[in-house]
């Protein structure tokens, strides 16, 4: 078991990564000094896989499966249930699920009675390495992803590699793209782990996963402690997300998973960086090869490039009227780059869409 400490100006918490921590949920709640009444928020598919025993100990609220749950309507219904259960300011919301559950439950907790405790228990690899840490919460708007939300730190994060054994292959691979991201932005050794032995990660070896999740969590924690509200350096964590979010919106949040969109987005960022002569062609090729070694990215037939480019104009990373891209300079190093010429972005996006239309969808 490994513990990563996140210490911020107005919040401090542990990210505990270890085989079997999920089974000791109540013990970890007590150690963190968290009280009831408790409420667990999950989704039907996740709850059937890992959460059945929880219903004997805690009240449960299930929100709809998938990205479609990230709406203000879902938050409103969740708040209604919290009122019905008479949750107090001493209560704790426990988010058991992937990024969608964490985002929705965290946002609801942040606005109920002006904020009650939330614990993140991520059950997807993507959530364990990324979204459960750092306090980003929120829901989607029809024009852009995560447009409505708040920064609200959890009181505890519990990541158990054992729960990842039940993930569908495509969902699991989606998290590996996000884990690889940390190697590109901050840790060349982690990137080389993917190059050298991606098969170990694909086999879901629990000990290897514990090390991977802990390493990614430590990088995320370090960046968040430097810049909690994403005013500066935290933006590097958005590598691949600018084009990736546009792809998700263009696919109506249905046909492409978040990690897959980030995979495509990282390819786009590498190609843009090479076009701007910031990234060597050899490193670009290494990045693309590592991404594709994880698995087959989904087909992009029917995705409109104009819709993607329009979505970029609503991106939260716009500063002073210009979209800021996170671009790799070399393996393990990225930079925040404003004012990327639109013609380069358009050419790269169209190239990726053309390639994606010729790819069969994942099995």
Nutshell version of this structure?
This protein is α/β, with parallel strands linked by helices and 363 residues long. It has 13 helices and 13 strands. Strand 3, helix 2 and strand 4 form a beta-alpha-beta unit.
3D structure, described in words:
- This protein has 363 residues and is of the alpha/beta class.
- It has two domains: 2-166, Rossmann fold, CATH 3.40.50.1970; 169-357, Up-down Bundle (Dehydroquinate synthase-like, alpha domain), CATH 1.20.1090.
- 46% of the residues lie in helices and 18% in strands.
- It has 13 helices and 13 strands.
- The strands form four sheets. Strands 1-2-9-6-5-3-4 form a seven-stranded mixed beta sheet, with helices on both faces. The chain has a two-stranded antiparallel sheet with strand order 7-8. A two-stranded antiparallel sheet has the order 10-11.
- Helix 6 packs antiparallel against helix 7 and helix 9 (241-250) crosses helix 10 (258-275).
- The radius of gyration is 19 Å and the shape is globular.
